[in-house]
């Protein structure tokens, strides 16, 4: 098989390796599409914990090539999407229905080799069937879509809510569509890149702001009589995290969804959170949302194709990551074959 391998921080190469074989309870997948995620970039830069060498990518879909001993739910030729979160299923968090917080959790593309390869071995229980009518490129996107669905569950957007998003990259544009599906009456977003602003408007944003030209807090306050009911930070930086707290109305919710650097800090006045009854929450991963994400795709409820801004072979993994870092890509896909 061929694979893009992260050898150590800031060094990668395409390697030829022996084809793997599935063990008991495992599947061998022929990867057809894999998404390039910001987490892959963080791993490559040494900013996210992972053991090297590693084949990255936790967003992928493909076809079952072989099944291991004891696997009865799948057979060769089945189309599947990979749910990358592998919990222990025995700890207190797992037993309480929060497997994504499992302290012994492993993940495809991080502790296990992932989808930037022609072949991948994975536990059969992490495979989600892909129905006819859903392309494998779209199915590869089920993981980040599921993460957004979990975030919106936590945000508790109600019918008629006003929602302010920060950032119109891949996550922001999925959040925009999902907020609409959940019954938000008004959705705004702030984005520096003009092409992304145009796409946000096309996908249903009621107000799109260039933060270099307008004061987003003033725009939101003027349109909502005091602030948004729900604010979702989708960028992952200290300045935008601090800005999120300026956009919310009294009694509203602020969600930190973007992955900020671990060392990032913002100044918060506890009295303000107390007096205004603000709810400040975070969202991580996608507990049991993968199948639901596939269902949304099957129902044609999300526009995915306009968000795919580049397709690459394994040799293009480096370029794909550079474009993502530079803010020039929304979602790039790698076709390993």
Query: Approximately how much beta-strand content do the residues carry?
Result: 25-35%
CATH superfamily of the largest domain: Medium-chain alcohol dehydrogenases, catalytic domain
CATH architecture of the largest domain: Alpha-Beta Complex
Number of strands: 17
What's the pLDDT, averaged over the residues? 96
User: What string gives the helices and strands in order?
Assistant: EEEHEEEHEEEHHEHEHEHEHEHEHEHE
Helix content: 25-40%
CATH topology label of the largest domain: Quinone Oxidoreductase, Chain A, domain 1
| Shape verdict | globular
Structure description:
The chain has 2 domains: 2-141 and 304-334, Alpha-Beta Complex (Quinone Oxidoreductase, Chain A, domain 1); 146-282, NAD(P)-binding Rossmann-like Domain (Rossmann fold), CATH 3.40.50.720. It is built from 11 helices and 17 strands. It has helices spanning 38-44, 92-95, 136-139, 142-155, 170-181, 194-202, 216-224, 238-247, 270-276, 290-298, 317-325; strands at 2-8, 11-16, 26-35, 60-67, 79-82, 85-86, 106-107, 119-123, 127-129, 162-166, 186-190, 207-209, 228-233, 248-256, 279-282, 308-312, 331-334. Helix 11 links the parallel strand 16 and strand 17 (331-334). Helix 4 (142-155) crosses helix 5 (170-181). The longest helix has 14 residues, at 142-155.
Attribute tags:
337 residues; alpha/beta; Quinone Oxidoreductase, Chain A, domain 1; 2 domains; six-stranded parallel sheet; 11 helices; 17 strands; 26% strand; globular
